[in-house]
Amino acid sequence: MTSTDELGPVLSEALAAMEDGVAVFAEDDALVFANARFSALAERLGGSADVRAYADLCAAPGAEALPEASTGAVPDILLSGGELRCRLIPLDEGRALLILSDISAQVQAERLSRARADQLAAILEHVPHGVSYLGADGRLEVANDEFFSSFDFPPDLTAGTQGLDFTREILRRQTGLEGDALDRAADARLARIYRECENGAVSQDTEWLDDGRVIEIRRRLTPQGSLVETYIDVTDRENALEEAQRAVRQYRAVVEDQTEMICRFDPAFRLTFANSAYRAAFAEPGGEILGRSLFEILGDEALGEEIGAGLSRLSAERPVFTGTFRETTRQGDAV
């Protein structure tokens, strides 16, 4: 039923053009006006023309109240599986305005967004590194547990917190700064990070923590201005590298201090290492002998062939070749 007697032609035409379904009920609950959209949406709720039927629907167990969206005394209700929003607004003289809105597209978009967010969260929790995502407004939108445990952030730093607060917390622990000095340092650091990430570049920092861990941080800006960060625990790698460097330093110190001549050749008998004693004996002043052939350095073809033959017989089972030879240094000394 559609009536324009009480509404007037202008208002009726305006209501008829609305995308939402609109119906007006009189004091006796009789339907006074309903636009075509209301009739179409009402079919999904049983097609009732009685306002009390909608009131009953709004009170049914499956209805979801949205009090924060209400514009009248009665809260908005989601019906039809959450795809219809029903708004019942009391009017004067006992009349009521009922508005039905099809929000199925919005609901589907929200469901898809939640599903993707759940998928992303599941993926991030299986990533063995800390990962965080700061939106274009600088607030933390997504982060996995590894991110929070990387620096053992306090519980009040959660999703929705400004990234500046995380930066401030890291600097506070590292520097002991407080107050305005800490704020300035955090502002400067975050500005430097965004500046380094411009034009698709990667900003990278390495943090040495008090507990001995070493964290490598890599950051990149998305085209939308969001900041993606990964926190990688590289403690084992750094320790292994330091151990290797220490071993090299010890080896070189021992070898360089030897008065005996020590050298190393590759399979083609090119010199790849020589200690100071060997270089002093066979290298020209200011000259370089690395990369030169053993036979060229010795200058004795027969001796070179004899040493070469002995070296060529080396194997895992026979790793040592021993011989006694006489060589002449560049100074003319026999050794």
What does this entry look like structurally?
Mean pLDDT is 78; it is low at 66-73. The longest helix is centred in the middle third of the chain and has 22 residues, at 104-125. The protein folds into three domains: 9-102, Beta-Lactamase; 126-237, Beta-Lactamase (2-Layer Sandwich); 258-335, PAS domain (Beta-Lactamase, 2-Layer Sandwich), CATH 3.30.450.20. The strands form three sheets. It has a six-stranded antiparallel beta sheet with strand order 2-1-6-5-4-3, sandwiched between helices. It has helices at residues 9-16, 36-42, 51-59, 104-125, 145-150, 163-175, 179-196, 235-256, 276-282, 294-298, 301-312; strands at 21-25, 31-34, 64-66, 76-79, 84-90, 96-102, 130-134, 140-143, 203-208, 214-221, 227-233, 263-265, 271-274. The chain has 335 residues and is of the alpha+beta class. The radius of gyration is 40 Å and the shape is rod-shaped. 39% of the residues lie in helices and 20% in strands. The chain contains eleven helices and 13 strands. A hairpin with a 5-residue loop joins strand 9 (203-208) and strand 10.
